[in-house]
Design brief:
With 189 residues, the protein is α/β, with parallel strands linked by helices. The chain contains four helices and six strands. The protein starts with a strand and ends in a 20-residue tail after the last strand.
């Protein structure tokens, strides 16, 4: 079987303070910074030959995946295997569902695939496919995640051989500078 490449993408920054449950779909949508992050991910991954974009059913992953798929001219596909780790859900269940998705995509998917999910499922997937060879303790972002919002890991390899994983992208998280008052026709005092 030929080599496969997966881009594991954590959703971009969601809105905070919405009162929506974070671990129950649809969850909060992207914030304005998150929409910028999603566009940065799409630009970074453009031209890499991605043949499929698969994402969790949550709004924040759907919006992130849509930005990428639109840039690539693809239709994103929803897969429950990439859903957020629910409160009270045993980690073994998260591992089982991401493994099942991985194995299916390895056997049936195109050579280059983007998976848009959440911190916990992606961490479980990275630990499993690398058989613990990657020291994820070096990667700690907000909420203890191994991927920042909008961050990307590249995983390459082929079945039956070790997979190589590399953290390759973190969006510029600086908020856009506000326009000076004079630029918007306002009065400068």
């Amino acid at each position: 079987m030929p080599e496969k490449t997966f881009y594991l993408i954590r959703h971009a920054a969601p809105q905070t303070g919405t009162g929506m449950a974070y671990d129950v779909a649809p969850g909060p949508p992207l914030s304005s910074d998150g929409r910028r992050e999603a566009q940065q991910v799409a630009e970074f991954l453009a031209g890499r030959g991605i043949g499929r974009v698969v994402h969790s059913p949550f709004d924040r992953t759907s919006e992130t995946a849509r930005a990428l798929a639109d840039r690539l001219g693809l239709t994103p596909v929803v897969d429950l295997g990439l859903a957020e780790h629910r409160r009270g859900e045993p980690v073994e269940e998260v591992r089982a569902r991401v493994r099942a998705l991985w194995e299916r995509e390895v056997m049936e998917g195109p050579a280059i695939i983007a998976l848009v999910s959440h911190g916990s499922p992606l961490k479980e997937l990275l630990e499993w496919v690398t058989e613990g060879r990657v020291d994820l303790s070096r990667f700690k972002f907000s909420g203890g995640n191994v991927i920042p919002t909008g961050g990307v890991w590249q995983v390459r390899g082929e079945p039956g051989k070790p997979w190589e994983a590399l953290f390759i992208f973190q969006p510029n998280i600086m908020a856009e500078a506000p326009a000076p008052a004079w630029a918007a026709g306002g009065r400068v005092v």
